[in-house]
Amino acid sequence: MTDELGALTVIFTEFYYWITVVLMFLIHVGFCMYEVGASRYKHHQHTLMKNTILIPLVTVTWFFFGWWIYWAFPTGPYIAPSIMTESAGLVLGGGFGANELANPMSPIMAIGLNDHINGVFWAAFLLFSWTAASIVSGALIERITTFAFGILAIAIGSVFWTIDASWGWHFDGWMLKLLGYHDAYASGVIHACAGGFALGVLAVLGARIGKFSSSGEPRNIGPRNPWLVCIGLFCIYTGFWGFYAACNIPIFNLGPEYGLGDGVNFWTATNIYVTPTTLSGITMNFLMSLSGGLLAAYWISKGDPFWTYSGGLAGIITASAGNDLYHPIQAMIIGGIGTIIAYKLHYWVERKFKIDDAVGAVAVHGYAGVVGLIICGFVLWGYPSSGYDGLGYAAINPIGMIIGAFIMFVVLGFIPGYVIAKILHGAGKLRIPREVELAGLDYNMMEAASKDEKAVSSSNR
Amino acid sequence: MATLTSWVEHLTTDVDSATEGMQVAGEIYPMVGTEGWLLLIGVIVWLAWHVVTHNNEAEELKKLARKSPGPNAHKNIVAEW
């Protein structure tokens, strides 16, 4: 950085991503509040610890191998060649875009004066990883062991969502080239994938004791503290602003990048695929899709606060795939449609398959994400999936987006979640003992606190 | 141990007429070159954490399951600080 303008661009970009990381921290705060609010008193402290401990587990594994996977796998491998290396193998070298930048043994993965971006970009993606794991966490409360959840959190947070991001959320990803996949703000790559993963785990884990009557009728185990749940969801909304901003590149000259001609410059913000959008426009779409979700959820749930707040989130998630290009009113309508489908599917799946999704995570993230991808395929039909014209990228289309949704929800979500949960279950490590679930995970802590309280209150010196 | 002992020297290392303006001495953390060993230590710490906390949790769950206080027992032990 030797000229002032160049330095300003770099430092601005560095600070931009740093701000998004701080904002996205609120997503995790929100998820913790939400889960504790939804769990019963006797499980509170373990519920909080389960979600909290995913922070270090996903962080260290993201450093060890998660970031490396993102940069290594855009070709599949062996599905479509990279536009950088022109090879279909793992992208292991070649400068920017290659995973040598993410090698945990490389000096660039540490503080260095020649690089101001890799660390904040790593952190922004890491916060997405926490979100993926946290989505799964809420569905499993009150009956999973912390050990098993830790393994599952690493699997979704540092492996499976990373693979799908490499395939479908990378300018060089094979899903863009062959399927015309488009998912600007991660309806699929985070939400459908994590929702599918949660469903796979739930299918093995089973319901909380008492959730279903002997005749199979579901019973409502309502949130113990609806206010904490609602504030938690407000925090998630707030963090989602940071997520949207983090999915963009804030300033980029597309003129030379796209080969628009000698001396032609076009400075803009871009999405993750390096196609142009504006922070201004996506802000409108964010708010309009939030509104569409809130309006629809309030109506369909007859004003239930838990579902109304969740519906706002489902609205954003549904519209996210195409929110870089939609009109705000399209974003609102799409958000509303996704929310209604997610709500209906939640109760249908609960009754039909006896799935106990304690916080509606599979619905709000998984089903809404899948619906958002499918709608995006129709509404953006014919748009280019990449700005690198002439390099063999398919246009956005409904079939490609439906296949993409299947890959996200089932191939990289449900199946890995189911298989890993089966292995943990087979080893007797997945679920807590029945007696503990009935007594409450916090029983020993509560008993110790009660003894302490009695000792203190009966003393006079 | 120290990667740099003078900021002036560090920021001007290897700058010649061909690379003028380029900062080539980027790394400033201690023990540059030991990244592989640091990774190995990190992985060992991470895996050991799983083993230790798994054993602790299994022990705690076993004890509580044996005690089996029942679904409503916790209502009698809520601390009222």
Walk me through the structure.
The complex is a heterodimer of chains A (461) and B (81). Chain A is an all-alpha fold and 461 residues long. Chain A has one domain: Ammonium transporter fold. Chain A contains 15 helices and 3 strands. Chain A has helices at 4-38, 44-72, 118-139, 146-168, 174-179, 187-205, 226-246, 254-258, 279-300, 305-319, 328-353, 361-379, 398-426, 434-439, 443-457; strands at residues 249-253, 267-270, 276-277. A 3-stranded antiparallel β-sheet of chain A has the order 1-2-3. In chain A, helix 1 (4-38) packs parallel to helix 3 (118-139). The longest helix of chain A is centred in the first third of the chain and has 35 residues, at 4-38. The relative contact order of chain A is 0.14. Chain B is mostly helical. The longest helix of chain B has 33 residues, at 35-67. Chain B has 2 domains: 1-31, no CATH class; 33-67. The two termini of chain B are 51 Å apart. Chain B has helices at residues 7-12, 35-67. The mean pLDDT of chain B is 85. The chains are: A mainly alpha (461), B mainly alpha (81). The interface between A and B is large, with 43 and 41 residues.
Quick description:
The complex is a heterodimer of chains A (461) and B (81). With 461 residues, chain A is an all-alpha fold.
